[in-house]
Amino acid sequence: REVSELIAAGEVIDRPASVVKELLENAIDAGATNITVEIKNGGRTYMRVTDNGKGIAPDDLPTAFLRHATSKISQKDDLDSIMTLGFRGEALASICAVAKVDVLTKRKDDSYGTHYAIEGAEEKTSEQCGCPDGTTFVVRDIFYNVPARLKFLKKDSSEANHVADLVTKLTLSHPDISFKLIRDNKTELLTAGDGKIYSAVYSVYGREFANSLIEVDYTWQGIHVHGHAVKPLEAKLNRKFQNFFVNGRFVKSKACAAALEEAYRNNIMVGKFPACVLYIDVPPNTVDVNVHPTKIEVRFSDEKLMHEAVYFAVKNALMERDA
Ligand code: ADP
Ligand code: MG
């Protein structure tokens, strides 16, 4: 393997959670309504993502693992308008460069599925097999060939928490998909996938949280903010419970977080943070999505306007509740 290839791979894939993220985004792109994520030992030795999406044609399997073979970007301008989650066409190439990958996949109308195995980017197996409709990726021994990277992984429990956080975010941004997370043979999360935000929130954060939701629905200068805010509960919340999804994607935004906390200012006790699951829809060309695949920070072309939108939306909801 070329060193440059491994470095490139390392930019996309820096820990088990980034593998899971790419596999989940692909499953979502494939139209799955049912997705299972299983990890063992923090994902270090074993990660599995199974979906019931459209599957991959046998002939397309080898190319799926080639860098940029599937890139949907032709010009820089396209970035603004790309609506599917995957657009770089290098996730699978990066994953197979640093791990051992098995794929089982079948399209609904095919009578057979395919088992494809690739290790260090080298094809090991390609054979017909029986399997359910959809796709299963199994990724083993991440960084088995990049000891320097392996050394940088945190404890298994902490790597597993990264995966769990990620699944949580995707659960909340896709209430129409049923997610299951299995961690070291134990089911940690199972969501209904009934399209209701409430039930997704319930599965992820529990009853107390779900029952104290305040509905938010507000439009400010072309920015639509909807979803729920939550007053601080007995249980100590931290900023991890502040979820902002901009145009369907989980993001970190200083403007949004500050606006939320400001709206709650007179409502919260010192040391407690309000929580939220807020969906913000804006014209795509006003978001500067950080192009780096592992980053989730965004900036808006008008940060002040975004701050206002979130502030007014939450403040308004709080006032309506108190009225
Ligand atoms: P990208 O998602 O940017 O196109 P990837 O390397 O993530 O690039 O995936 C390569 C291709 O493999 C995808 O474009 C898609 O055609 C196919 N693919 C990957 N995962 C799945 C899946 N779970 N179901 C169906 N097709 C998939
Ligand atoms: Mg992808």
UniProtKB/TrEMBL annotation:
<comment type="similarity">
    <text>Belongs to the DNA mismatch repair MutL/HexB family.</text>
</comment>
<protein>
    <recommendedName>
        <fullName>DNA mismatch repair protein MutL</fullName>
    </recommendedName>
</protein>
<comment type="function">
    <text>This protein is involved in the repair of mismatches in DNA. It is required for dam-dependent methyl-directed DNA mismatch repair. May act as a 'molecular matchmaker', a protein that promotes the formation of a stable complex between two or more DNA-binding proteins in an ATP-dependent manner without itself being part of a final effector complex.</text>
</comment>
<feature type="domain" description="DNA mismatch repair protein S5">
    <location>
        <begin position="201"/>
        <end position="319"/>
    </location>
</feature>
